Branched-chain-amino-acid aminotransferase (Natronomonas aquatica), 309 residues
Amino acid sequence: MSFEEMDVDTIWMDGEFVDWDDAQAHILTHSLHYGTGVFEGARCYDTADGPALFRWDEHLDRLFDSAKVLDHDIDHTREEITEATLTLIREQDLASCYIRPLVYYGYNNLGVSPEECPSRTMVACWPWGAYLGEDAIENGVDVMVSSWRKHASSMIPTNVKATGPYLNSMLAGEEARRNGYVEAIVLNKEGKVAEGPGENVFMVNDGEIFTTGLSESILDGITRDTVIELARDLGYTVHDEASIGRGELYTADELFFTGTAAEVTPIRSVDDTEIGNGSRGPITEELQQQFFDLVEGQLGGYDGWFLPV
């Protein structure tokens, strides 16, 4: 669904609510030219107790940490950004939605150094369903291992959710789609599995769960952390610092992606090799169900992860 088809009309920019079509930046904005923005992707879910932001504090933590690394000076407090987000959701009557905060260097000069450019902040919210397709949650997706490698943490800080490094994600994802696949898996410079273009990767073997560790140059995903905790609470052994070789993908019992947009999406094939029986595996399905029960407010014990709208 394109933005033109969505019933959303307001964006928060630098402390003000502006009409969607008027939320604009100058063509010489520093971050447009050099990729020096930082952002988040969060979700509001329509829970049994009403709309609520999911793990909002953790998303704000990462936004402010990312801003610190890129030397952004955010002029707004966490409370201001939170209240702006809640207001957008309430006034646009969004029971569930995707939330995009962005901090970027604005217009002043176009030297590589952003020293004289102001840090600007915006938040937008809109409805967004299944990121990898409506049937992906149940039937899984076909992926390929990309020829593009993930940058190392010694090149770009991989714990930072910055706009520029997502060029790597775009190249990998578009390569996959040009070749008839839904998504890509990206290897790191050592040839080990890193992550998807916008997702973390999980593998299931012999009833145990493995996911690539932070040392493999991945983003420390919040949905990744959620699924790890849910799996352990269900009694599974989870290896969260795994080093996974490309060949291990083909022989896995199950594979799946996690991410704020992708949520929990099964992987049914890699490079045309069926994973397991070529459909969603039982452990993936159980974790999916647990995740969706969680975000719909049907599981007890996780109230601290929700901020009511």
The chain is about 25% helix and 30% strand.
